[in-house]
Amino acid sequence: MSGYSIDQAAAQTGTSKHTLRYYEREGLLAPVAKAPNGHRRYTDDDLGWVRFLQLLRATGMPIREMKEFVALTHAGDHTIADRVAVLAHYREALVARMEADRDHLDRLEMKLDYYRGVLQAADAEPEDITRRERASGQPARS
Questions:
Q1: What spatial distance separates the first Cα and last Cα of the chain, rounded to whole Å?
Q2: Alpha carbon 100 to chain centroid distance?
Q3: Architecture of domain 1-59 in CATH?
Q4: What is the pLDDT of residues 111-134, one digit of tens each?
Q5: Tens of pLDDT, residues 73-101
Q6: What is the rounded distance in angstroms from the CA atom of residue 73 to the CA atom of residue 82?
Q7: What does pTM read for this prediction?
Q8: Could you give the C-alpha distances from 114 to 30, 90, 127, 141, in angstroms and in order?
Q9: DSSP character at residue 31
Q10: Which of 4, 14, 50, 142 could form a disulfide with 8 if both were Cys (CB 3.0 to 4.6 A apart)?
Q11: Would you say which domain of life the source belongs to (predicted)?
């Protein structure tokens, strides 16, 4: 029997053997075929499912909802509209997180630029910064 051992499947998907067994046990992954010696043998389709489950998990989808999504998939094509709705919901949440992260990054960059400017000014003319601080009565802003 051909296919991938659990070690190979774990390496190819970047997940642990424990997670692969867990996905199968929880019904997220269809029962994996076994070789005559009883060892799991994963197919390319199995690995594709694992990668899709990783994607769902990375969106923040809880295991419970992943199980519901897998059940919709197994129920047939009449559930495609429901699947689209679920994925669209997680897409919207992901886009919102990305926008918030972009805002955080922009604000962090502004602060870094400020501090780098302070360091450059201090390296160039340390006495000028000290004079400005004395004149204002306050240390440089953080």
A1: 65
A2: 15
A3: Orthogonal Bundle (1.10)
A4: 999 999 998 888 876 565 556 666
A5: 999 999 999 999 999 999 999 999 999 99
A6: 10
A7: 0.74
A8: 54, 36, 19, 9
A9: P
A10: 4
A11: Bacteria
